[in-house]
Amino acid sequence: MSKKYTIWIAFAAGLFALMTILICRKSTGAGKGGDVGATLEHPIVSVDTVPWSEPPLAIIQVIEPIPIGRFFKFMDILVKQYDTIAPYELSEYLIVRANPWIIDTLENTDYYRQMERGNFVFEQQKMIVLKAGDTLRLPGPQTAAAMLAKMKNTWLDINIPAFRLRIMEGDSVLYRFPVRVGKNQKKFLALVKNNVDLRTHTGTGEIIRISRNPVFYDPVTGKQFKFTKRDDHKTTLMPLIPWIEPSIDGMRYGQMIHPTTNPRSLGKAASNGCIGLKEADAWRVYYYAPLGTGVRIRYDLMEIGEQGDTLRYDDVYRYKTGGRKYGTSQASLFPPLHPGNVCWCKP
Predict the structure, then answer these.
(1) Which pTM does this prediction carry?
(2) Which one of 76, 178, 259, 288 is separated from 268 by 20 to 30 angstroms, measured CA to CA?
(3) What pLDDT, in 10s, does the model give residues 286-309?
(4) Other CB atoms closer than 10 Å to residue 333's CB: what's the count?
């Protein structure tokens, strides 16, 4: 082989590598994704990326703007269209996790993030999350296998007195978020015409149900929430953000993991049993917790922090001072409803 021919091969290989890098940068760069920006506003312990040692299986170009109200339908169309060419089981989760800037963009639809930028959002569903000309990459088979292995090894850890949810990958913490938990009280709920213990149940289980088009009902009054009053006293339509439901020790207690439109309640025992998150954080939890994801809900008043320090928390349910045991099981109080997008909880 001549020296000149060898040089041309090296040049071509280098050009291909450069093009691949540029494509990846375009697909994952901050600032992509519609009118909401993509500035990261939460502490990330570990970035969800897999080294791209192979080119994408396909580059998908977005033809027209996609608002949140049509986002899930768009994702379903992509899965149906490209599942036949993918040598692995394609899903909405895999596409989004292979294009992490999408999660960044969805996070930035958070009402309070937009208000910090001077944008009042009455109807979140109209916000554009994919712009015409945006590109999505479909991972190659080796990259997809690595990502699927990471997803299979991911689980959720919630410590009630710490008011904290962590996304874990094996023993490593990927993300941590503040949450609210169930109130330390019994309350009369019109839904069941009985007093119900509202404390969040502990145990281990997995995600058994999701809703991408949630409908919220107040279990106290039985009325549907169509509007929500924010912490700043402004009223908006309810946002379209998925919730997820775990089973706990084989039981269904109606304890959803869902966003709250009143983040001032985070760090408190303020819900009817559900685990509430910021709107932004709920998007990330959704894409890290598909069906089958493991969940552990615990009540640890002391734990060793990630830096090796000892952390102590208030006994919010007063278990140490003779707090009452759980009464009527919510499993029988909140049976699955049809359609399966109903959540008996306050936003």
Answers:
(1) 0.80
(2) 288
(3) 999 999 999 999 999 999 888 889
(4) 17
